[in-house]
Amino acid sequence: MRNFGLSIREKSIVCIGFMGVGKTTVGKLLAQKLYRNFVDIDAEIEKEFSMPIPLIFETYGEKAFRKKEKELIEYYSHQPLYIISVGGGAFLQKEIQAMCLANCIVLFLDISWDSWKERIHILSGNRPLLQGRSIEDIKELFLERQSIYSLNHSKFQIDHFEAEEAAEYLSDALKLSWEIYAPQR
Ligand SMILES: Nc1ncnc2c1ncn2[C@@H]1O[C@H](COP(=O)(O)OP(=O)(O)O)[C@@H](O)[C@H]1O
Ligand SMILES: O=C(O)C1=C[C@@H](OP(=O)(O)O)[C@@H](O)[C@H](O)C1
Ligand SMILES: [Mg+2]
After folding, report:
1. Is the residue at 100 inside a domain?
2. Handedness of CA 52, 30, 119, 146 (dihedral sign)
3. β pairing state of 154-157 and 13-16
4. Is residue 143 one of the residues assigned to a domain?
5. Residue 98 placed within a domain
6. Which atom of ligand 1 approaches the CA of 127 most closely?
7. ipTM greater than 0.95, yes or no?
8. For the domain that residue 147 is a member of, what is the CATH number?
9. Are the beta carbons of 64 and 72 closer than 8 angstroms?
10. What are 133-182's pLDDT values in tens digits?
11. Is residue 108 part of a domain?
């Protein structure tokens, strides 16, 4: 189903940002607050391949992972009223950037490098792109990736928030923008 004519209130919301900033966790909470459907693209990819992401990379390669990532985002970006959490590498593909920016509201969830490195111990296990890399290499990747995340409709700095607070912050900001741009009265 194409979403021609969707109003700003109906458009799906896409959460982008570097691995570990909280797209999956905060996205799910945001969906509850806004009474929307939630989809995590990585979880859908795992379902399609019936295996966890590190095994997909190992067995089929990153290219196959990216192909499935694009197919799924193409589908969900045309659905109304979703909160869509994508993987941190999704915006490497120009077609994905274009689809999301044209059809959805794209939110960049950001945290500083100093905050991010505090989280590394909980992240590296199931993120193949972090495995076997030095902290300096990861910092380089973190900085390099900022340019793709700069393609967004709104950026939220969520360093100092618990996940629940971050979701509240996003939800309040979205409701306010809907009131300004598409008041219901
Ligand atoms: N606001 C937050 N504060 C502290 N830890 C968080 C926060 N948001 C997420 N986390 C934790 O960081 C890890 C990565 O979160 P996740 O939602 O999977 O990030 P992403 O989807 O961006 O890779 C998880 O263990 C999660 O519990
Ligand atoms: O940044 C990336 O290239 C990736 C990020 C991961 O998602 P999260 O950003 O949710 O960790 C996952 O899609 C995969 O490991 C590749
Ligand atoms: Mg995630």
Report:
1. yes
2. positive
3. unpaired
4. yes
5. yes
6. 23
7. yes
8. 3.40.50.300
9. no
10. 999 999 999 999 999 999 999 999 999 999 999 999 999 999 999 999 88
11. yes
